[in-house]
Amino acid sequence: MDSALASIQRVADAVWEVPSTTRPGMRVPVRIFATEPLLRDMDDAVFAQAANVATLPGIVGASCVMPDAHWGYGFPIGGVAAIDPATGVISPGGIGFDINCGMRLVVTDLTLEEVQPRLHELVDTLFRRVPAGVGSSGFLKLSDDEFREVLVEGARWCVRRGYGTAEDLARTEESGCFAGADPSTVSVRAITRGQNQIGTLGSGNHYLEIQVVRPEHVADAALAARFGITRPNQIAVMFHCGSRGFGHQVASDYVQLFLHVMTTKYGLTIVDRELACAPFRSPEGQRYFAAMRCAANMSFANRQMILHRIREVFSDVFARDPAALGLRQVYDVAHNTAKLETHVVDAVERELLVHRKGATRAFGPGMAGVPREYQETGQPVIIGGSMETGSYLLTGVASGAMGFYSSAHGSGRTMSRTKAKRQFHGRELQRTLETRGIYIRSVSYAGLAEEAGAAYKDIDAVVDATERAGLSRRVARLVPIGNIKG
Amino acid sequence: MAYEYLADGVTSDVSFRARAPDLDGLFAAAADATTNLMVRSLDSIAPAVSIPITVRAEALDLLLLRFLEELVFYKDAQCLLLRAANVRVERDGAGHRASATLVGETIDPAKHELAADVKAVTLHGLAVRPVGAEWQAEVTVDV
């Protein structure tokens, strides 16, 4: 057992704290949002990593850990750290390599009864039209200058070119564009890697899923209706992807730069080099922040182009206009970012740089940054589960302040990919799931095996803990019937 | 095989251990371990394209990271699956230099059985060290 865990104290039903006195150098406590069983089953590395994060210069309040947390680079995945921008640091390890990896949820007016007879055709067509897997390229062929425009404008660029609607933007975090993105802070290598990847799903745990909302899975019908879920067995589409090779290159470039300057130029001592960082207000910190926002915008554009493809495919398969099919975006929300936000800490309102890595922003009702139509409900929070178990739509709540208005982002892995591949067989899994009504297409059977449901935590337990911890409130569970993986 | 994937490594991504009698062989083995994550059979990669590379770093572990990043870069930038030939790891002033010829071909899903998409080489547990009479490396890649 990690020593950080030995001193843990329960502070609320599903909230635990490891005091800042537990280890030398900790500036704040570690705050873990979890039920007792989830806490017991978390990797030891999570506690050690969260304690390391608690030593970062400028960290405020607590080093937070979401219920789905598991081991990550430097920060745990499911980690949140709010940093004083005037005195603190920015760390790519607190954001993740896949900058603005996120979720987008789209509802339709179609029901299971209408989609079931066409499910194979629908999934097969999506599989052909939404590139996935190793070395895949999108249909958008951009010049260097056009790609740089995308980096500045994000999903707005796509909508300006006819690949989406103003409503899509209104229902996207930051309206699909992080302000302050500066392509001059991005390497030529990053641009070369990402230029042809817009509109591609990627691989690993990225997916595109056809889902159904069964009446018994609606937890709050009034809230569900506000989010567009109004009919029994309604069909939705959820997808999970990020900034592809571009975001990874941005992160890799700046990790190496920060490794160099943090000691030689800024005299920063950190306990783990995976927490490589630079003072936020330093030239290097500001350059990374601007580059990170380019990657965030590339990711919004990526998900926007995938939505465009989804609309085309549904329109082709059902021979109706996407609007006539009721294809409407519910929300697009990031779970790998750092953002300047206003929070109240010790009764004082402060601007903080909130790192969320594998953690979904979950703003409650009335908060700035929540779309006008969700001001009363709180922001939709999308938690993606494994292809076997389903996903959840929740909403942000006023009680989320303890976690800097953040929530879980997925199930959280419990088994290594190598182990999962040895334990499960992709083809067999595909056949078994089809007998359970889930039709899957994957570029790689090995990749499919790695994503077996048993390699993940129980998503119901994660969502239960998220709700009990006061981070967000469940609206509906969405069950897969079709899935595309890289 | 001069490399193995570690089942008890990280949960989200993939760790491997490579070994060889010398650093040249170690870097080549680590390159194969990386590419073999992306394609099931290294033998399915024909030597149609050659790209000379040279990377530099002060420390050997960061040198290996930069060396492997070249494979990831060309996979995305030019859709190439590559192996490393003629690898040479040498001292370079106070640091080190690795040069090689990356040899391979354009990704073809009809020919190559594709697997995981390696997106980054990470610092997690990254190590290059002599163990007894051989060199060993441990690497975790983001997939």
Describe this entry's structure for a reader.
The complex is a heterodimer of chains A (486) and B (143). Helix content of chain A is 33%, strand content 24%. Chain A contains 16 helices and 19 strands. Chain A has helices at residues 3-6, 36-41, 44-53, 112-115, 119-129, 144-153, 155-160, 166-170, 188-194, 221-226, 244-264, 283-318, 417-423, 426-435, 445-450, 459-468, and strands at 9-12, 15-18, 30-33, 59-70, 77-83, 89-90, 102-111, 207-213, 234-241, 278-279, 328-334, 336-345, 348-357, 360-361, 380-383, 391-396, 406-407, 439-442, 472-485. In chain A, helix 6 crosses helix 12, helix 9 runs antiparallel to helix 11 (244-264) and helix 11 (244-264) packs antiparallel against helix 12 (283-318). The model of chain A has no long low-confidence stretch (mean pLDDT 95). By secondary structure, chain B is of the alpha+beta class. Chain B has helices at residues 23-38, 60-78; strands at 3-5, 14-20, 49-57, 80-92, 95-106, 120-121, 127-131, 134-142. The longest helix of chain B has 19 residues, at 60-78. Chain B is globular. The model of chain B has no long low-confidence stretch (mean pLDDT 95).
- Helical content of chain A stands at 25-40%
Overall shape of chain A: globular
Tally of helical runs of chain A: 16
- Major beta sheet of chain A, specifics? 8 strands, mixed
Give the oligomer, counting copies of the same chain as homo and different chains as hetero.
heterodimer
For the sheet with most strands of chain B, the description reads: 5 strands, antiparallel
Spatial gap, N to C terminus of chain A: 36 Å
Coarse shape of chain B:
globular
Question: What is the number of strand segments of chain A?
Answer: 19
Q: Give the helix/strand class of chain A.
A: alpha+beta
| SS content category of chain B | alpha+beta
Radius of gyration of chain A: 21 Å
